[in-house]
Specification:
Elements (H helix, E strand, L loop, with lengths): L1 H10 L14 H8 L4 H23 L15 H14 L8 H12 L9
Length: 118
């Protein structure tokens, strides 16, 4: 019982009144994406690739609606460049979660074609 209480007291600062806080915001993602080589560059590439793959998987499984349609010819470097450019040109949004920023970039850059009506 004493161990459980100690563990809860140690973990308590991790909870906020707002619920779950994001692990990564736009400030940190921009920091990673503008780093040259090393950990930062790898963290940026890995984060963006993970977010794209996660969103595509959710869309394929019907969990979320198609928010973007990524062309087969687009590579990770291009998406990272788009995300980095967006973060640089929208400093007022750096406090938002990195996930939401990547999703906005994908929606703006790669919208799905609207269905045609006959």
């Amino acid at each position: 019982m004493k161990r459980t209480m100690t563990a809860l007291l140690l973990l308590a600062p991790l909870w906020t009144a707002h619920g779950f806080a994001a692990f990564l915001d736009g400030n940190r993602l921009l920091e990673y994406c503008t780093a040259r080589g090393g950990y930062g560059e790898g963290a940026c590439d890995g984060y963006v690739a993970g977010m794209v793959d996660s969103r595509l998987s959710q869309q394929d499984k019907g969990i979320t609606p198609a928010g973007f349609c990524l062309p087969e010819t687009v590579n990770l470097g291009q998406v990272v460049w788009l995300v980095t450019d967006y973060l640089r040109t929208h400093p007022e949004e750096l406090h938002f979660t990195a996930d939401s920023t990547v999703h906005v970039v994908l929606q703006e850059a790669f919208p799905c074609a609207a269905p045609t009506t006959d």
